[in-house]
Design goal:
Number of strands: 18
Low-confidence stretches: 1-29
Oligomer: single chain
Strand content: 25-35%
Helix content: 25-40%
Distance between the termini: 171 Å
Largest sheet: 6 strands, mixed
Mean pLDDT: 82
Order of helices and strands: HEEEEEEEEEEHHHHHHEEEEHHHEEEE
Shape: rod-shaped
Number of domains: 3
Structural class: alpha+beta
Length: 440
């Protein structure tokens, strides 16, 4: 009985001793048995410059080490990771796990190198980013697998290819955000100066000249244009004019976006300058045409009656009866042939005398028609002028049935020819008066 108690006590002591040894193995400091060294020359990453990160796992223990996998903490979506540059499939963003099937076993006192290939998409978010790797492995401890892991990180400065070079050339454009407006204004200024003549060239706002970019007003315009491009412009233009479709450089951008934004900005600046110059050219042409039209339809003292009547119609004045007026300085009477008397800027008006129409000996029908139209208060000037033109036709004059002549009537107390009179020199206006007399 005593013997059995001693054996049982011995077994319990052995079990307690075994549990103590297993707990020690679980708490082994892996840095004394496994060492991980991260080596990489990849300090900067851009859309045209991928690179490698090398993870060297050293087995410092006396037992075999089995490598399992490398897990990567969540990283930016524009960074792509593969086990090798030859792999065509990137690491899944759901599992974020790297496997190396041919490199699982690491013998005692040896090391194994695991390559991580890092590249960026063509649309990135510039700045400092960190990749965090967790290396998993296990070893046999008294016939039981013991899993362990070591975490190590690597910092990357993500940049856009060509951004520093392009922005460096534009010393005041320190960010990509205000880049579009700057280019638009400079291109607009260059095209404007090359297209417009000297006087118009001088009217271009001085603060928008390319050499005035220290002026705050310049930057107000440039930033406003840039914000429009940021808000909607660039996204809409990439959809409309590129094969790769929608891009939003608030999310991220790359060298492709710099190139597209450059040419979009140049195009907008050029087209805007061409349209502005074209509108200005058309506006000046309209003004010139208007001046020529007004000069052509301007009244002169030497005008004959038919010429005055034609100019009145061209000016939109279609009244057959005119207001009679008296010139205070000469006491002569006349008829006002202008309709815009209320214009305060118009200081003088044209007046004419009576018009005499002499018909041929066999033109009784024409005389009757003319007298009826002239006497009718509803008749318009264009109707009477049409009658005059019919009477002046050669087929009628040859048969003595037309108009002999149309001339200014030399009537006492009336002006004989067109006259330009100051409005302040007019008095005694009498509306709706006859100005034509018809005789055979």
């Amino acid at each position: 009985m005593t013997y059995r108690l001693v054996v049982l006590l011995f077994i319990v002591l052995e079990l307690i001793s075994g549990e103590g040894k297993a707990g020690t193995n679980k708490t082994v400091d892996t840095t004394k048995t496994v060492n991980v060294i991260l080596s990489s020359a990849l300090s900067e990453l851009n859309d045209f410059r991928p690179g490698f990160i090398y993870l060297e796992v050293k087995n410092l223990s006396d037992s075999l080490l089995t490598f399992d996998r490398i897990e990567i903490a969540e990283y930016p979506s524009f960074i792509r990771i593969k086990p090798s540059s030859l792999d065509t499939i990137t690491v899944s963003r759901k599992t974020r796990t790297l496997f190396y099937p041919g490199k699982q076993q690491i013998p005692s006192r040896t090391s194994q190198i695991y390559t991580v290939y890092v590249e960026s998409a063509d649309q990135v978010q510039p700045g400092k980013h960190r990749l965090l790797f967790n290396i998993f492995f296990h070893r046999n401890n008294h016939g039981k697998p013991q899993a362990e892991s070591i975490t190590i990180g690597h910092d990357l400065q993500v940049k856009v290819f060509g951004e520093n070079e392009i922005m460096g050339a534009l010393s005041n454009a320190v960010t990509f955000l205000i880049f579009p407006g700057l280019i638009m204004i400079i291109i607009f200024s260059l095209v404007w100066k090359s297209l417009t003549p000297g006087p118009e060239k001088e009217k271009f706002p001085e603060f928008l000249n390319g050499d005035k970019i220290t002026d705050l007003r310049f930057w107000v315009v440039a930033i406003t244009l840039s914000l429009v491009m940021v808000w909607k412009g660039y996204s809409l233009m990439t959809v409309a004019f590129t094969s790769f479709g929608h891009r939003d450089y608030l999310y991220g951008y790359g060298f492709k976006d710099i190139v597209c934004m450059w040419f979009f900005s140049v195009a907008i600046g050029t087209i805007s300058a061409l349209l502005t110059a074209g509108i200005l050219y058309c506006f000046k042409k309209v003004i010139l045409w208007k001046k020529r039209y007004e000069a052509k339809n301007a009244f002169h003292e030497s005008d004959i009656p038919m010429m005055v009547l034609k100019k009145m119609l061209d000016r939109g004045f279609n009244e057959a009866r005119l207001s009679e007026i008296t010139v205070k300085s000469t006491k002569e009477k006349g008829f006002i042939i202008e309709s815009d008397l209320s214009d305060p800027e118009k200081k003088a008006v044209w007046i004419i005398g009576r018009i005499h129409v002499a018909c041929q000996e066999d033109a009784q029908n024409l005389v009757t028609t003319l007298q009826a139209h002239i006497a009718d208060p509803k008749s318009t000037l264009d109707l009477i002028v049409s009658d005059f033109k019919d009477g002046l036709k050669e087929e009628n004059t040859n048969k003595k049935r037309g108009i002999e002549e149309i001339k200014w009537e030399n009537m006492p107390g009336y002006v004989v020819r067109p006259k330009y009179v100051e409005k302040t020199d007019l008095e005694n206006e009498i509306p709706s008066r006859f100005i034509f007399s018809v005789h055979m």
